[in-house]
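Thread: sanity check for a docking pose with zinc ion

Original post by kr_44:
Hi all, I'm comparing my docking run against an independent structure prediction. Below are the sequence and the ligand SMILES. Could someone generate the full complex and paste the structure tokens? I mainly care about where the ligand ends up relative to the chain.
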Amino acid sequence: MAAPLRILVFGKQGSGKGTLATRLHQRLGLPHVSTGDMLRDAAASGSEFGRRVAAIMDAGELVPDDVMEGVVRERLEAPDAAAGFILDGYPRTPGQAAFLDDLLAPEGVTVAIELQVPDDVVRARIVHRRVCTSCGAIYAAGRDAAAESGVCDVCGGSVVQRADDTEEAVGARLATYASLTEPLLGYYSDRGLLERIPGEGDPDSIAEGAVDLVEARRS
Ligand SMILES: [Zn+2]
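Reply from moderator J.T.:
Ran it for you. Here is the predicted complex with zinc ion included:
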């Protein structure tokens, strides 16, 4: 059996890393594991755990390591992730990276990809972003009619601004990215696992470039 293909996708929120992860999932046939989506689903569930997560995310803060470890372990040990996965939103701290190394030993992580986009670009993208609560389709206020009407073009669901997509929460997340994620990228760079790619431009071209980088690592 070939070694598992474990891909980490990094980027500021609004960099397009979710889109890249979806495209890699389609091209490579590996599950897209988004810890952000998993936490938002939990928050929407209204459970005690979900309410705790919602309060943390509304404040633009990180969910504690011990909570994330349980969520990530359960998902990455699922049978559909045995051949590999595209992990989006984790790790975010050196402690989480060490946990992931232990979890994935001995093969470890195959490649860490960072989509690079300037702060002012992601800030503008996020405050204009609207999302369908039913199918997850993403729209931009000031560009897409569905963002103004509140009705999804794809499924007719309701299109809203996420509670954590405000200017204030975005600022907190950008500061967190600079202080925690940038050093973390150094961790993967030191191990020869980091690929940085420009995140502005056509999403299909960006995804093609990323697939080429992954394939080069596989062989
Ligand atoms: Zn929809």
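The mean pLDDT is 91. Hope that helps with the comparison, let us know if your pose agrees.
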